[in-house]
Amino acid sequence: MEIRYATNPTETKTYDTERLRQEYLIEGLFVPGKLNLVYSHVDRFITGGAVPTAEPVLLEADKHDMGADYFLERREIGIINVGAQGIVTVDGTDYVLENKDGLYVGLGNKQVVFKSADAANPARFYLSSTPAHKNYPTQKVAISEAEPQHLGSITNSNERTIYKYIHLNGIQSCQLVMGMTLLKPGNMWNTMPCHTHNRRSEVYFYFDMPEDGVVFHLMGEPTETRHVVVRNEQAIISPSWSIHSGVGTSNYTFIWAMAGENQEFSDMDAVAMKDLK
Question: pTM for this structure?
Fold first, then answer.
């Protein structure tokens, strides 16, 4: 498990490109047959990826870094499959996830195992975990069942559909809020006009991008913006003080996960375009 410590906006202003990438960008999440995890001290997020092939992959706690006997001893987790059909087994119960289906697993579940229906065409499980204080039921949500919200316009190059999976009016959790945004063809912008939300942080995971495609992810304080070049199946940590927006070389999809003081999806501080620098 890789550990990332929290940063502050004053220091971030001095970072060069390489340092920005070291602090905020998460690369190499998906390795065949492996579980990869990044523990961030920003709201104690754990972000990860699991690619089971011929053998299942077990979600295990890092005893040294987590101080737990099993991963969900003090945590909850959201899982979205971005690959071929897969199965998540939670304490003996199987949940079949097609591409873009999601699963919430609550505190106290002792064994979580990831499997692929076809080892030659494996599932790719994206994971987002936050601390939890009580148990909520394990629950699957197919993308067809997720609450959609249509936003933007082709005129502004940001026509998109937001699918909410784990939220106040959907799957219940202690603090994790999670969903997916799909940009329609011909649209490249997300979350512009932008915002911050000082009461919670966020992690973006970009995927469904062509091999040579990139997203220029915008971050930083609204008056001190920076950018990080993000490629397919990479994630980026967004502290509460930072904007989180981006423009791609083509349309793409991204998973967003939030954690912090509240779960109100609309709790955000809008930034006027005239104030961006």
Answer: 0.95
Q: How far from each other are the two terminal CA atoms of the chain, in whole angstroms? A: 36
Q: How far apart are CA 174 and CA 269, in angstroms?
A: 23
> Are β-strands 35-40 and 2-4 bridged in parallel, bridged antiparallel, or unpaired?
parallel
Give residues with Cβ within 8 angstroms of 21, minimum separation 6. Answer: 228
List of residues 6+ apart from 155 with CB closer than 8 A = none
With a pLDDT cut of 90, the percent of the chain lying above it is 90
User: Residues comprising the binding site?
Assistant: 195, 197, 202, 244
- pLDDT range class, residue 32, cuts 50, 70, 90: very high
For the annotated binding site for Zn(2+), the residues are: 195, 197, 202, 244
Distance CA 98, CA 140 (A): 11
Nearest alpha carbon to residue 182 among 96, 75, 99:
99
Whole-number Å distance between alpha carbons of 91 and 211: 37
